[in-house]
Design brief:
Layout (H helix, E strand, L loop, with lengths): L1 H11 L4 H9 L5 H13 L5 H16 L3 H10 L4 H9 L6 H15 L8 H14 L4 H17 L12
Family: Belongs to the RecX family.
InterPro entries: RecX_HTH_1st, RecX_HTH_2nd, RecX_HTH_3rd, Regulatory_RecX, WH-like_DNA-bd_sf
Function: Modulates RecA activity.
C-alpha cells in the first residue's frame, strides 16, 4: 500500500520526502514501513529533495518572480531540509541579489501600466505591496518602485533624481 501511495503522488509531479511520508502515514501505514519504502525510492533516485529544491527555485523564481525568502519559506513548508534549501538558493541555478533585483524590476514593469491614473501614494502602495507578497524586503521593493516611477515620469532610466516614496 505504501508503495502505491508514493507512486500515485509521484505520478502527479515531484514531491519531497516529507510530503510523501505524510501521505503514506495518512493511510495508516506503520512508520517503519513508510520509511523503508521511502528509503528505497530515495536509493533509486525517484525521491530527491536536493533536486526537488533546485528545480523549485529555478521554476518559481523564473515563473513567479519569488524572492529568496519566499522560495525558502515554500521549501521549508514542503519539508525540505534547511541545508538543502540554502544549497538550492546558492547553487548554479540559485537566486542572488542581482537576480532578485532584476525579477523585482520585471514584476514592477509589468504591473506599472495597469496603475496609471491611480494617485501616487496608492500606486506606490500597490506596487510595493505586490513585491512584498512575492517576498521582497521593503528596502529593495521601495527602491525598485521609486526608480520605476521616476523613469516613467522622466522618460529615462530612473537612476537620477529619484522621488521619495512618501
Amino acid at each position: 500500500m505504501a508503495r502505491a501511495v508514493v507512486l500515485r503522488r509521484l505520478a502527479m509531479g515531484p514531491r519531497t520526502r516529507a510530503q510523501l511520508r505524510e501521505a503514506v502515514l495518512s493511510k495508516d501505514v506503520p512508520e517503519p514501513v513508510a520509511d523503508a519504502v521511502l528509503d528505497r525510492f530515495t536509493a533509486v533516485g525517484l525521491v530527491d529533495d536536493a533536486e526537488f529544491a533546485r528545480e523549485w527555485v529555478r521554476i518559481r523564481h523564473r515563473d513567479k518572480g519569488l524572492s529568496r525568502r519566499a522560495l525558502a519559506d515554500e521549501l521549508r513548508r514542503k519539508g525540505v531540509d534547511p541545508e538543502l534549501v540554502e544549497a538550492a538558493l546558492d547553487g548554479a541555478d540559485g537566486v542572488d541579489g542581482d537576480d532578485e533585483r532584476a525579477a523585482a524590476e520585471a514584476l514592477v514593469a509589468r504591473r506599472l501600466p495597469s496603475t496609471r491614473g491611480v494617485d501616487h501614494p496608492k500606486r506606490v502602495n500597490r506596487l510595493v505591496g505586490m513585491l512584498a507578497r512575492k517576498g521582497y524586503g521593503p528596502g529593495l521593493a521601495g527602491d525598485v518602485v521609486r526608480r520605476a516611477l521616476a523613469a516613467e515620469r522622466d522618460g529615462d532610466d530612473g537612476t537620477d533624481d529619484v522621488e521619495p516614496l512618501g
